[in-house]
Amino acid sequence: MLKKMGLIGALGLVVVAFAACDDNPLAENRDEIDRFELNPSFAYVKVGDSTKVNAIPVNVHGERPGVAVTGTACDSKITIKKDPTRVEYEPPERFVIFGVTAGTTCLNVSAGGKTAKADIVVVQ
Fold first, then answer.
1. pLDDT band at residue 67 using 50, 70 and 90 as cut-offs
2. Is residue 68 packed enough to be buried (19+ CB in 10 Å), middle (13-18) or exposed (0-12)?
3. How far, in whole angstroms, is CA 77 from its chain's centroid?
4. What are residue 62's phi and psi, to 5 degrees?
5. Which 3 state secondary structure label does DSSP give 2?
6. How far is 13 from 98, CA to CA, in rounded Å?
7. Which residues contact residue 62 at a Cβ distance below 8 angstroms, ignoring those fewer than 6 apart?
8. pTM of the model
9. Which residues are bridge partners to 44 per DSSP?
10. pLDDT-derived band at 12, boundaries 50, 70, 90
11. Distance CA 50, CA 97 (A)
12. Which range, of 5-9, 26-30, 74-78, averages the lowest pLDDT?
């Protein structure tokens, strides 16, 4: 009986030691951006008109870490600004794209060291 208790005690110690291990794969990389979800990733806009593009940074677990997103126009065919109707802490980040001159261009977004590009076609 004593030998059984010793074995059970040893197994209990192994279980406790294993449970105390801080090797939880779901706790890793929560704040690191893995990719962007752009909606749309391809858009048309008329010269003198506007459209919106959502940019959602996502970590490896598919979660939104809530980091700040910046956006820049690839060239002068468009101008962009953050959507003023969006609440600051409401994901996703939303950019308003204004068509300036006809042609193909893009919107670059970045956050946490990652970048993505939405293709924009400005039409007459």
1. confident
2. exposed
3. 26
4. 80, 15
5. helix
6. 65
7. none
8. 0.73
9. 121
10. low
11. 5
12. 5-9
What are 71's strand-pairing partners? 109
How buried is 48 (Cβ within 10 angstroms: 0-12 exposed, 13-18 middle, 19+ buried)?
Answer: exposed
CA atoms within 13 A on the CB side of 8: 5
What confidence tens digit (pLDDT) does each residue in 18-62 have? 445 555 555 666 778 899 999 999 999 999 999 999 999 999 888
Q: What is the dotted CATH code of the domain comprising 30-123?
A: 2.60.40.1080
Amino acid code (one letter) for 60: V
Domain boundaries, the chain: 30-123
- Sign of torsion, CA 45 49 50 51? negative
Distance (Å) of CA 15 to CA 23, 30, 116, 121: 14, 27, 45, 60
Cβ neighbours of 69 (radius 10 Å):
22
